[in-house]
Amino acid sequence: MEQSSLFLTADEQPISLGQALRYLESSGKLESVLWEIMRQHVLEQEFQVLDDINISSDLIEQVIIEFRLNNQLTDSGRFQQWLAQEGLDYSSFRKQIVSNVKLENLKTQVTESNIQEYFIERKLFLDQVVLSRLVVEEQSLAEELKSQIIEDGAIFEQLVQKYSIAEDQIFNGMMGLISKGTLPDVIRAEIANANSGELIGPIEVDKLWYLVRVEKFLPASLDEQLKQQLESELFEQWLEEKIQNTNVQLQVKF
């Protein structure tokens, strides 16, 4: 085995890079490993551009302080113990912090001009609603139950317990917090102009009949937490496109 092809040894037995790749291929993990390598390669190429942007030592130290505060590592002894547990020394830890700062700067640079447009595109799936439902097999029964609720003052929850065939019957029909984008089109259309507390239906969904009560609307707003989530989504899309457009040729035979 040529020394240049030696990748590692196990109990003094040499394992070449080609062998290592064969092992990964046999386990079905080669593609994911190559993808991670290319991901880091693209990031490193982009970081070289960011080298012209000053990342001050003061900023890095501030990030380190915030990290230690957030992770209850302000005590020096506890911090050193944590570093040892993670297999790090302070120098390698600081390098990770620098890399993370560069990554966040790159995310901002890539996504800042598109974040508002992306929020609008995703808003259907970001807006949420709380619904309760009563599900039966016959339209006539659904009509009768709606009449009992509206005209006779019957209690929705009691009718759910008695008649609904949906699994959430045990929770009085409460479906919980749902993204509007995941609702069946017919339900989403029916609740679009409804008010909280309004009973909608009967609505046919998959040959079943629904009475749906709108409990609460929770429209999405671009707060800091959601902004960070959308930035990460946009960035990963950008990064995936960069990788897919990179001409990759494996140079090792195995």
List the helices and strands and how they pair.
Blueprint (H helix, E strand, L loop, with lengths): L5 E5 L2 E4 H10 L3 H21 L6 H14 L5 H10 L4 H22 L3 H12 L1 E9 L2 H14 L3 H8 L10 E6 L5 H7 L7 E7 L2 E11 L5 H21 L10
Antiparallel strand pairs: 1-2, 3-4, 3-6, 5-6
Helix pairs in contact: 2-5, 2-10, 5-10
Give the gist of this structure.
The protein is α+β, with helices and mostly antiparallel strands and 254 residues long.
β-strand percent reads 15-25%
Fraction of helical residues: 40-55%
- What would you call the shape? elongated
CATH class of the largest domain: Alpha Beta
Radius of gyration using CA atoms only: 28 Å
Order of helices and strands: EEHHHHHHEHHEHEEH
For the sheet with most strands, the description reads: 4 strands, antiparallel
Strand order of the largest sheet: 4-3-6-5
* Total number of beta strands: 6
Tally of discrete structural domains = 3
Broad structural category: alpha+beta
For this structure, the quaternary state is: single chain
Spans of at least 5 consecutive residues with low confidence:
none
Return the average pLDDT rounded to an integer: 90
* Count of helical stretches: 10
Look up the CATH topology of the largest domain: Chitinase A, domain 3
* CATH architectural name of the largest domain: Roll
Q: How many angstroms separate the termini? A: 13 Å
